[in-house]
Amino acid sequence: MSLGDLFTAPDWGTVPDWLAAIGTVSAVVLALSLARRDSKRLETERKEAVADRELFRQQQVAETEARKRSLAAKVSLVAKRTTLSLQPGAGVPRQLVDWSVHNNGDEPISMVSIVQRLRPEAPGADKAATEMCHTWPMIEPGGTREWRTDVYRDPQDFEYQREVQFTDGTGQRWQRKEFGALRTIEPGDDEALKFMMFPA
Prior knowledge:
Immunoglobulin-like
């Protein structure tokens, strides 16, 4: 093959054909590159949107829980103990407990029960029954309920702790101790009260 044959055969096309081919290949490469970049950007935006929705959901849950706790914190319990003195030789002095439950929140509370039980460290506490002293169906916002119970028991009164359990408007059950401790209480909790509903 001579040098002349190299330039005459085969037909390599014209310069514009080459430029067009290069341009086509470049366009395809650019299009694929842009598509890949856009795909990565869309995936990143999707993940950010999912993360934003989850963060918003967590914030909503936290705000709801904070609001519920704020309302529950406005329920107070006072259990005032009084010893009635008897005539000498008349026996053990009679002790009374005057209960007062106040709902200072702006929503009603329901199934409000005043409770007393032996302190965990008191002798026999593991076998002693929890005593539900009284239950009110509901206490309206700003309302107060009062009740009086007698203390007829051998252990000293200071060995007992008192509390109120109630349900807020969302169905969450709460426990407020006599000296202020507040916590949510679930049905399976050891200190949850067992209610039995009878048909009307």
